[in-house]
């Protein structure tokens, strides 16, 4: 089966590229991927599989491939939403939807998985167990699509789940893995501070919200430098400080927005506690009213050590790969983490740096692009893992 699958994938490389380019030209934002979901569902029409649409809180699609031999049930996941970014690449298949762009490689994720799934369907009589193909909506915008798919119960029978992400840090042919905590969790917060406005010449008659908010910004940074174990990873970012007013008017209201990154649940709890403590202190010290919105977005992504070790061994046996290496922890977030909370998982990385480029534009950049050779690498790598798992 393994040799057949690799030959089939090799013969359909151009199809993967064309699918990716079509999706790249027609991107849709998270929770609005109606046409993309229809395109994916149409791909499976007439094929001998069970297709479930509108799974979860949006346009999620689950395709169940039942093998001809007894075995375990695994999941393969790819996301298909795009980002609110004006594309600045010069590729001939650039986005036709102005202000929306596949700037994170989800078009490539979907393209490789569609073709891989079709090949697996044709080989289903040789498959031991069941494979569930998870085409997931809305990875980019919390609450995301993954949690709702998990909560639906449709994946309760999975013994393991696998996913990949295209990253331009490495060339096509490089594959990265990390056992244990691999990607950060993320929490969003918004803080509204209400003081008393007044004339710039009479600060004693006012209660300056800008001064109070500025103290919060400074104090919040001490959480990482003075409260967190230096060997732990944590980030507190204030990304928005809305205090614009007039030069001679004491501002009565300021709104801040930011996010928190962490690699363990313990670190999340510590930072949460400290931010709430600082807010209470700001209220008392500056006599302002604070309204804090604090929302946990995605948990840290945890790769099961046993599953990841098996993936590493399987990938190292491939002739198609130039390098299989351990990647460092990554402070970005991924809602694949919701699958990994419930199911033994491995989420690994596929290099896609464009040829001839020294330093590629990273994911979410308006000039983000990929080496399309990475699509076949992704398909073969995940196919290899499926075959190895099936043989176990």
Tell me about this structure.
This protein is an alpha/beta fold. About 35% of the residues lie in helices and about 30% in strands. The protein contains ten helices and 16 strands. An eight-stranded mixed beta sheet has the order 1-2-4-3-5-16-6-15. A four-stranded antiparallel beta sheet has the order 10-12-8-13, covered by helices on one side. A two-stranded antiparallel ribbon has the order 7-14. Helix 1 (about 1-10) runs antiparallel to helix 10 (about 375-390), helix 4 packs across helix 10 and helix 6 (about 210-225) packs antiparallel against helix 7 (about 265-285). The chain is elongated and about 80 Å long. The mean pLDDT is about 95.
What is the topological layout?
Elements: H1 2-11, H2 13-25, H3 34-43, E1 50-55, E2 60-66, E3 69-79, H4 106-122, E4 128-136, H5 146-151, E5 160-171, E6 174-177, E7 180-183, E8 185-194, E9 198-199, H6 209-226, E10 234-242, E11 249-250, E12 253-262, H7 265-286, E13 289-298, E14 301-303, H8 305-316, E15 323-326, H9 337-342, E16 345-353, H10 373-391
Parallel strand pairs: 3-4, 3-5, 5-16, 6-15
Antiparallel strand pairs: 1-2, 2-4, 6-16, 7-14, 8-12, 8-13, 9-11, 10-12
Helix pairs in contact: 1-10, 2-4, 4-10, 6-7, 8-10
């Amino acid at each position: 089966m393994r040799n057949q699958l690799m030959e089939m994938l090799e013969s359909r490389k151009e199809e993967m590229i064309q699918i990716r380019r079509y999706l790249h030209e027609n991107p849709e934002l998270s929770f609005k991927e109606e046409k993309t979901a229809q395109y994916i569902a149409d791909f499976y029409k007439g094929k001998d599989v069970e297709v479930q649409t509108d799974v979860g809180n949006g346009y999620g699609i689950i395709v169940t491939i039942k093998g001809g031999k007894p075995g375990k049930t695994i999941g393969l996941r790819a996301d298909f939403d795009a980002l609110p970014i004006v594309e600045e690449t010069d590729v001939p298949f650039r986005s036709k939807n102005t202000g929306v762009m596949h700037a994170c490689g989800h078009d490539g994720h979907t393209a490789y998985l569609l073709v891989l799934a079709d090949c697996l369907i044709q080989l289903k009589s040789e498959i031991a167990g069941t494979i569930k193909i998870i085409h997931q909506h809305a990875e980019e915008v919390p609450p995301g699509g993954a949690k709702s798919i998990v909560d639906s119960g449709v994946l309760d029978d999975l013994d393991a789940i696998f996913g990949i992400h295209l990253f331009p840090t490495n060339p096509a042919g490089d594959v990265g893995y990390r056992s244990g905590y691999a990607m950060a969790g993320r929490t969003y917060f918004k803080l509204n501070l209400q003081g008393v406005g007044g004339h710039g010449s009479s600060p004693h008659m006012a209660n300056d919200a800008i001064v109070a908010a500025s103290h919060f910004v400074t104090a919040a940074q001490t959480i990482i430098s003075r409260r967190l174990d230096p060997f732990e990873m944590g980030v507190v970012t204030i990304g928005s400080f809305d205090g614009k007013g007039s030069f001679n008017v004491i501002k009565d209201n300021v709104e801040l927005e930011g996010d928190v990154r962490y690699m363990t649940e313990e670190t999340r709890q510590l930072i949460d506690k400290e931010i709430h403590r600082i807010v209470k202190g700001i209220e008392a010290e500056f006599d302002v009213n604070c309204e804090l919105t604090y929302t946990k977005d995605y948990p840290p992504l945890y790769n099961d050590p046993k599953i990841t070790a098996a993936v590493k061994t399987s990938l190292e046996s491939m002739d198609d790969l130039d390098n299989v290496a351990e990647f460092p922890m990554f402070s970005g977030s991924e809602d694949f983490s919701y699958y990994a909370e419930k199911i033994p998982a491995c989420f690994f990385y596929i290099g896609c740096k464009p040829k001839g480029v020294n330093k590629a534009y990273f994911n979410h950049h308006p000039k983000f692009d990929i080496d399309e050779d990475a699509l076949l690498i992704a398909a073969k790598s995940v196919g290899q893992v499926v075959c190895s798992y099936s043989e176990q």
